[in-house]
Amino acid sequence: MTKRVVSPLRAVKEVTGAKDRSIAIQRLVASIRTLAKDRGYRVGVTESPYEPRVYARMLGAVDIAEDADMLVAGAIVFHGTDPVIHLNPKSGSRVQQRFTLAHEVAHLAIWYTQKQIDPSYRPRRARGKRTDQLCHEIAAELLVPQDELRQEWQDLSAKVGIRGRKLQIIEQVARQYDVSLQMAAVRFREICAPSTGIGMLQGETCRFLWSIGIRSHAELATKFVNGLATARESESAAESYGFLTYCLNREGLHIIPFSWHRLHGSHYLVVEEG
């Protein structure tokens, strides 16, 4: 009998009964969360921050080990037939390693769906950008569920008189879900504000350490630092939240307000408010 060969995405869609990629990923993560609850897991499952280690164990990983000699951030290595997740402790901060672990858990989740389709399926590490992208999306949903983020943004947006809402929700997500500011920013933009520009700016060098959707990096960085010099006339303004405007062209026909928050040293989270 010929075995069915099913791609990772097709397996996820088939098992969840969803044709839409995003919905399929949501349903997959929801089903894994439900399975964890049914097996008695509570911490890291029933409320944020969600703990990928719990799901790793539940989906069959016999251990999570550190390997500083790895050339990648993380990988699943088979010891006989037992999968062991290896993480490189030098690959990033603690919260970045949490995402790496969630990414490896996503591979286990994909194997879980493929085994439901074909009980004789033997797990293997699928290679390729498409599979890695799918695992990124599953990991993001595992750590920061989109329905929860969307609801929190709606709740904050409904409050009257709050300036810098986008800054606040990004920082709130990073704290509440124990993820990096960059991941919180990417997730927020992806789900709630796809046209928003967000970045982490290093004031002393006038350079963005990372940015998403900001249309003119160098010009905005210079304008921001020049504007910040004026804001520093008030010591309290330089230490808290502030607001500046940025013209997309010389005629000033398209002016976008930006909010900023000094995080530490000369690092600033900068977000479009338009």
Structural notes for this entry:
It is a single chain. With 274 residues, the chain is an alpha+beta fold. It folds into 2 domains: 8-63 and 94-142, no CATH class; 147-272, Beta-Lactamase. Helix content is 47%, strand content 18%. It has helices at residues 8-16, 21-38, 52-58, 94-117, 129-143, 146-157, 165-177, 181-191, 217-231, 235-239, and strands spanning 63-66, 74-79, 82-87, 198-202, 207-212, 241-247, 255-264, 267-272. The strands form 2 sheets. The protein has a 5-stranded antiparallel β-sheet with strand order 5-4-8-7-6, sandwiched between helices. Strand 6 (241-247) and strand 7 form a beta hairpin. Helix 2 packs across helix 5. The model is unreliable at 234-239 (pLDDT under 50).
